[in-house]
Specification:
Elements (H helix, E strand, L loop, with lengths): L10 E6 L7 H14 L10 E6 L8 H13 L7
Parallel strand pairs: 1-2
Length: 81
């Protein structure tokens, strides 16, 4: 799906939920596996992506995640006066 041409300028935010229940070492292990699989293929493609740890229950990590996606999109929007 990420290779679809119509998604060429799309930002990708991957939320690694359950950070409040899963030990950080386990999250880092899974994150490493995902990056070395799918996300590493995006490195040279010019696509913008980020993986963030979060907890939907406590809200930890959500604000930083959404700030990243907002900033990433805003940095590529061209506004005409």
């Amino acid at each position: 799906m990420l290779s679809a041409e119509k998604l060429a300028g799309a930002s990708l935010l991957v939320l690694a939920n359950k950070a409040d229940l899963v030990p950080p070492s386990e999250i880092e292990k899974v994150e490493s596996e995902v990056k070395s699989g799918v996300l590493d293929k995006l490195e040279g493609s010019g696509r913008h992506w980020k993986m963030c740890h979060c907890s939907a229950v406590t809200g930890v990590g959500l604000e930083d995640s959404f700030q990243w996606i907002i900033s990433d999109i805003a940095s590529r929007i061209f506004m005409f006066d």
